[in-house]
């Protein structure tokens, strides 16, 4: 009898797991019926039945019943999660695609957090178009960080704008540079681009090849006011005597008109720069444009102007005052200078 008691106690240590699971996952009525059933089987086992076999079989049976009950309760939740699961799968697909084309994990996370928040598929479509234009993953990432409005563009708009820029002479390599420096070129209004191109071709009389090179090397001119751009060219051509080829070669149009006028007039008043005559001749050798505009202010003063920073600062203040006082008498933006007018001004100065 004592041995049978020990066997019953041993059986109790075998069945707590299925018993606990059944107790948690069944209703109270089911718990009562299960308790009676287990008690009956326990009695059978105490009368010499196969305890070890019983525990294994019944444990498996009740575990299967519990799993079936659990699966029944999960079905509605899985149906509720279906839209979220679809969105998650789509996001994972986009992430995998971006990683496959060369984006790093950091870049992918940053792109997905851009504001306005892009739809994953829209993000992938825009990036694909930019990659097809010849950009590498790193420049694409920089362009989108600089101008996230690109993600709002329809694909057809991007394709049409790219085709238009190619017609202007911006091939794959040049277009890549333009998009890297000025990605806003894809979001600008078409009329604004046409206006700038019209000024370069019709007012400044640059050739098609020269216009393409200007847009390639100085893409920010597309964001300038057309009148100010025309005035900048006129200042270079008539006041400084810079020809079309030199304007293009030196990237003259990328510099602000304020910087150009300050350094040019300062050299003029120092006697180190002179406007060429009709034959392109001067009485003093003019410094190269790159030594005037492409260098830092310190280098400009030390090597080109041979002057001090204090003297240049005083000049800039006086020159700014002159510009304000003479603004009413300045040439309007819509008026073109001519060589004849420039010659008359020189004659008056000589008299």
Automatic annotation (TrEMBL):
From the UniProt record, report the name of the gene that encodes this protein.
MTERF4
Q: Which GO terms describe its molecular function?
A: RNA binding
Q: Where is this region: Disordered?
A: 323-351
GO biological process terms, alphabetically, are: mitochondrial ribosome assembly; mitochondrial transcription; rRNA processing
| Superkingdom as given in the UniProt entry | Eukaryota
Q: Does the keyword rRNA processing apply?
A: yes
Q: What is this protein called?
A: Transcription termination factor 4, mitochondrial
Which residue ranges have biased composition labelled Acidic residues?
339-351
Keyword terms: Mitochondrion, Repeat, RNA-binding, rRNA processing, Transit peptide
Q: Where in the cell is it found?
A: Mitochondrion
Q: Which PANTHER family match?
A: CGI-12 PROTEIN-RELATED, TRANSCRIPTION TERMINATION FACTOR 4, MITOCHONDRIAL
The species is Zalophus californianus
Quaternary structure annotation from Swiss-Prot or TrEMBL: Heterodimer with NSUN4; this interaction may be required for NSUN4 recruitment to the mitochondrial large ribosomal subunit.
Cellular component terms per the entry's GO annotation? mitochondrion
Lineage here is: Eukaryota, Metazoa, Chordata, Craniata, Vertebrata
UniProt similarity note: Belongs to the mTERF family.
